[in-house]
Amino acid sequence: MQVGSALPSRLRLAQPSASRLPGLMDFLLDTRMDDTAQRRLYFIQALVLGIPTLAAGGTLAVLAVMVFFSRNRYMGGLESLALLSWGLSGVLGLLAWVWLSIVYLRCGRAGLRRTGPLGWCGIAAGSVGALVVLVIVVRLALEDGWEPLRYLVAGPLLLIPSAQLAWLRWGRGPATAA
Length: 178
Description:
Helix 2 runs antiparallel to helix 3, helix 3 (77-114) crosses helix 4 and helix 3 runs parallel beside helix 5 (159-170). The relative contact order is 0.14. The termini are far apart. The chain has one domain (35-170). It has helices at residues 24-28, 35-70, 77-114, 117-144, 159-170. By secondary structure, it is mainly alpha-helical. The radius of gyration is 21 Å and the shape is globular. 67% of the residues lie in helices and 0% in strands.
Protein backbone atom coordinates (compact mmCIF):
# COMPACT_ATOMS: atom_id res chain seq x y z
CA MET A 1 0.00 0.00 0.00
CA GLN A 2 1.32 3.42 -0.88
CA VAL A 3 1.79 6.01 1.82
CA GLY A 4 -0.57 8.66 0.44
CA SER A 5 -3.26 6.38 -1.03
CA ALA A 6 -5.67 6.81 1.90
CA LEU A 7 -5.75 10.59 1.48
CA PRO A 8 -8.09 12.33 -0.94
CA SER A 9 -6.39 13.19 -4.21
CA ARG A 10 -6.28 16.93 -3.47
CA LEU A 11 -4.35 16.33 -0.22
CA ARG A 12 -1.75 13.93 -1.61
CA LEU A 13 1.74 15.22 -2.21
CA ALA A 14 2.57 15.66 -5.84
CA GLN A 15 4.76 12.91 -7.16
CA PRO A 16 7.86 14.19 -8.94
CA SER A 17 7.59 13.63 -12.64
CA ALA A 18 10.45 12.98 -14.99
CA SER A 19 9.25 15.71 -17.32
CA ARG A 20 9.41 18.44 -14.67
CA LEU A 21 12.41 20.67 -15.17
CA PRO A 22 14.10 21.69 -11.93
CA GLY A 23 13.71 25.33 -10.99
CA LEU A 24 16.42 27.67 -9.81
CA MET A 25 15.67 27.07 -6.12
CA ASP A 26 15.76 23.31 -6.64
CA PHE A 27 19.19 23.76 -8.23
CA LEU A 28 20.51 26.07 -5.51
CA LEU A 29 19.28 23.93 -2.61
CA ASP A 30 20.11 20.55 -4.11
CA THR A 31 22.08 18.68 -1.46
CA ARG A 32 23.06 16.00 -3.96
CA MET A 33 24.90 18.51 -6.13
CA ASP A 34 28.51 17.57 -6.54
CA ASP A 35 31.11 19.59 -4.70
CA THR A 36 32.62 21.13 -7.83
CA ALA A 37 29.29 22.57 -8.96
CA GLN A 38 28.63 23.95 -5.48
CA ARG A 39 32.04 25.61 -5.41
CA ARG A 40 31.53 27.18 -8.82
CA LEU A 41 28.12 28.49 -7.81
CA TYR A 42 29.56 29.87 -4.57
CA PHE A 43 32.42 31.51 -6.49
CA ILE A 44 29.94 33.36 -8.72
CA GLN A 45 27.89 34.37 -5.69
CA ALA A 46 30.99 35.58 -3.87
CA LEU A 47 32.03 37.69 -6.86
CA VAL A 48 28.61 39.27 -7.33
CA LEU A 49 27.89 39.95 -3.66
CA GLY A 50 31.38 40.00 -2.15
CA ILE A 51 33.34 42.44 -4.32
CA PRO A 52 30.93 45.39 -3.86
CA THR A 53 30.57 44.67 -0.15
CA LEU A 54 34.32 44.39 0.36
CA ALA A 55 34.80 47.72 -1.41
CA ALA A 56 31.99 49.70 0.22
CA GLY A 57 31.59 47.92 3.55
CA GLY A 58 35.32 47.53 4.08
CA THR A 59 35.92 51.19 3.39
CA LEU A 60 33.16 52.28 5.78
CA ALA A 61 34.31 49.89 8.51
CA VAL A 62 37.93 51.07 8.31
CA LEU A 63 36.75 54.70 8.26
CA ALA A 64 34.64 54.08 11.36
CA VAL A 65 37.66 52.73 13.24
CA MET A 66 39.84 55.62 12.00
CA VAL A 67 37.24 58.20 13.06
CA PHE A 68 37.09 56.63 16.50
CA PHE A 69 40.83 56.99 17.00
CA SER A 70 41.34 60.37 15.34
CA ARG A 71 38.11 62.31 15.99
CA ASN A 72 36.94 60.80 19.25
CA ARG A 73 36.71 64.14 21.02
CA TYR A 74 33.86 65.32 18.77
CA MET A 75 31.52 62.50 19.82
CA GLY A 76 29.98 61.39 23.07
CA GLY A 77 31.22 58.27 24.84
CA LEU A 78 28.39 55.99 23.77
CA GLU A 79 28.43 57.21 20.17
CA SER A 80 32.15 56.63 19.80
CA LEU A 81 31.95 53.15 21.34
CA ALA A 82 29.07 52.23 19.02
CA LEU A 83 31.07 53.46 16.03
CA LEU A 84 34.15 51.50 17.14
CA SER A 85 32.22 48.29 17.76
CA TRP A 86 30.43 48.54 14.41
CA GLY A 87 33.68 49.23 12.57
CA LEU A 88 35.59 46.41 14.27
CA SER A 89 32.76 43.94 13.72
CA GLY A 90 32.71 44.90 10.05
CA VAL A 91 36.45 44.49 9.61
CA LEU A 92 36.46 41.17 11.50
CA GLY A 93 33.48 39.90 9.53
CA LEU A 94 34.97 40.80 6.17
CA LEU A 95 38.33 39.24 6.99
CA ALA A 96 36.68 36.08 8.32
CA TRP A 97 34.42 35.82 5.27
CA VAL A 98 37.37 36.13 2.89
CA TRP A 99 39.35 33.54 4.85
CA LEU A 100 36.49 31.00 5.07
CA SER A 101 35.61 31.54 1.41
CA ILE A 102 39.18 30.75 0.38
CA VAL A 103 39.15 27.67 2.61
CA TYR A 104 35.89 26.48 1.03
CA LEU A 105 36.98 27.17 -2.54
CA ARG A 106 40.29 25.36 -2.02
CA CYS A 107 39.26 22.46 0.25
CA GLY A 108 35.47 22.16 0.05
CA ARG A 109 33.19 21.16 2.89
CA ALA A 110 35.91 19.12 4.51
CA GLY A 111 38.06 22.25 4.80
CA LEU A 112 35.21 24.22 6.39
CA ARG A 113 34.61 21.43 8.88
CA ARG A 114 38.28 21.41 9.87
CA THR A 115 38.48 25.17 10.53
CA GLY A 116 38.65 26.37 14.09
CA PRO A 117 36.23 28.70 15.81
CA LEU A 118 38.17 31.91 15.06
CA GLY A 119 36.75 32.41 11.58
CA TRP A 120 33.23 31.57 12.68
CA CYS A 121 33.46 34.07 15.55
CA GLY A 122 34.50 36.68 12.99
CA ILE A 123 31.53 35.76 10.78
CA ALA A 124 29.24 36.08 13.81
CA ALA A 125 30.66 39.51 14.69
CA GLY A 126 30.31 40.67 11.10
CA SER A 127 26.74 39.36 10.97
CA VAL A 128 25.83 41.41 14.03
CA GLY A 129 27.30 44.52 12.41
CA ALA A 130 25.50 43.75 9.13
CA LEU A 131 22.20 43.24 10.95
CA VAL A 132 22.61 46.67 12.57
CA VAL A 133 23.02 48.20 9.11
CA LEU A 134 20.03 46.22 7.86
CA VAL A 135 17.79 47.52 10.67
CA ILE A 136 18.90 51.10 10.00
CA VAL A 137 18.31 50.72 6.25
CA VAL A 138 14.82 49.27 6.76
CA ARG A 139 13.94 52.07 9.16
CA LEU A 140 15.20 54.73 6.75
CA ALA A 141 13.47 53.05 3.79
CA LEU A 142 10.15 53.14 5.62
CA GLU A 143 10.59 56.85 6.29
CA ASP A 144 12.32 58.10 3.12
CA GLY A 145 11.41 55.64 0.37
CA TRP A 146 13.72 53.47 -1.74
CA GLU A 147 16.83 55.64 -1.73
CA PRO A 148 18.42 54.24 1.49
CA LEU A 149 18.43 50.72 0.02
CA ARG A 150 21.76 51.50 -1.63
CA TYR A 151 23.36 51.22 1.82
CA LEU A 152 22.70 47.47 1.78
CA VAL A 153 26.05 47.16 0.03
CA ALA A 154 27.71 48.21 3.31
CA GLY A 155 27.51 44.73 4.79
CA PRO A 156 24.11 43.01 4.67
CA LEU A 157 24.78 41.53 1.23
CA LEU A 158 27.39 39.25 2.79
CA LEU A 159 24.78 37.70 5.09
CA ILE A 160 23.77 35.44 2.19
CA PRO A 161 27.18 33.90 1.41
CA SER A 162 28.02 33.78 5.13
CA ALA A 163 24.85 31.82 5.81
CA GLN A 164 25.71 29.51 2.94
CA LEU A 165 29.17 28.88 4.41
CA ALA A 166 27.59 28.06 7.77
CA TRP A 167 25.09 25.76 6.07
CA LEU A 168 27.90 24.01 4.20
CA ARG A 169 29.87 23.67 7.45
CA TRP A 170 27.13 22.40 9.76
CA GLY A 171 24.61 21.06 7.25
CA ARG A 172 24.19 17.48 6.23
CA GLY A 173 26.07 16.24 3.27
CA PRO A 174 29.26 14.53 2.32
CA ALA A 175 32.48 16.16 3.38
CA THR A 176 34.52 15.35 0.33
CA ALA A 177 37.90 16.96 -0.04
CA ALA A 178 39.29 17.99 -3.38
